[in-house]
């Protein structure tokens, strides 16, 4: 049974010259089959490469979104750290002031 897309040539008479003419077409048919297979393989490879590029682009887009989200989170955390450092410095200054007042009050009594 012939494969789909394969063209076979069979002689229509049993005469020797017709059989030779029919056999002369076999290389042409084989070349046509090989060209069709080559064309299908190229098309398959082209589509596969296209899917691969689309997957890579999607991964790149996801990574870019992740970078943006992490950058925003990093900015928020840096702001919170600066604010905590400012409050710590204020508490430290207030603590020093209260300590000095405590020493003053201890001297008075």
Automatic annotation (TrEMBL):
It holds the Pfam family bZIP_1. Its main location: nucleus. GO terms for cellular component: nucleus. Residues 35-77 form the BZIP domain. It is found in: Nucleus. CDD domains: bZIP_plant_GBF1. Residues 1-22, 36-60 are annotated as: Disordered. The keyword Nucleus applies. InterPro entries: bZIP, bZIP_plant_GBF1, bZIP_sf. GO terms for biological process: positive regulation of DNA-templated transcription. Keywords: DNA-binding, Nucleus, Transcription, Transcription regulation. GO terms for molecular function: DNA-binding transcription factor activity; protein heterodimerization activity; transcription cis-regulatory region binding. The keyword Glycosyltransferase does not apply. SUPFAM superfamilies: Leucine zipper domain. This is BZIP domain-containing protein.
